[in-house]
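Risk register update: the risk of archive-format incompatibility is retired. Evidence:
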Amino acid sequence: MTERDRKRLRAAFAAYLPLPVNLEPTLGEALARVLQNPGSLIRPEIVLEISRAYGLSETHATDLAIGLEYFHTASLLFDDLPSMDDAFERRGIACVHLEFGDAGAILTALALINRAYALTWRAVGASVPDRQSRALSYVERNLGVDGLLNGQSMDLHYAMLPHDRQTTEQIAMGKTVSLIRLTLVLPAIMGGAPESELQILERIALYSGLSYQVVDDLKDVIQNSDETGKTASRDLSLDRPNIALVIGIGGAIERLTRLINLGDRMLRRLVAMRPSIGFLETLRYELGEEALQITQSANRDAVGRTA
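Archived output:
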């Protein structure tokens, strides 16, 4: 991914939801604020690269990349609400609901979702008919009651569920893995990837999604808000799923190491089949570096407690 591509994605994130001149000012300000603060944009970068590997046009790949990122951003706005995670900070600035109210944050999220569907449908519509139906079903499965919504509901009602690894990872499958599946697998479906490669991409999405969730959980336990750019220590205070709280920091680090190793095995198989997927090795390296930093932070924290 070149710096030119990254600049183009940042510009597209800001521009692909055009705001009409007669838009109600509060909603307009809230949307403008979100669109000008896109975060890392790692997911749309992956979508563009996967799309290139499977022959999608740049135009439709960008539509899909920004559409999926709008879905992700909307999920964060919902997550931060007082009725959910009651967060104060996201991406280094105050959460939207704190400046524009709960209703403002909800309407902003719905505007993003509405536009996300339009962009996703436009991208999928360029595929051949048999791929279209499979792609749309895949979107529905991962965003709907079988995926993201179910994971979010389990997260909110975690107090009534077993606080074990199985339940915690089931929730992560819905909340985190679902969106990563869309990022990795959906453009491959649209590009007509062989079934063998789709199955491997599914496994990579699973291991990567769970890995990222473990890293996020460890950050919530170990780091402060200045380090993470979002409200920290919320999982313990709200009784929300966190693998580091369930199996301990050491157990979470061991689990993270195993998930990364399993993902590496799948990635090597896929790159042997399709060398143009090799860019994922760079992302794997970045995940490994973040895991190393978390491990070092955990070790320093443990030393501090015993000193």
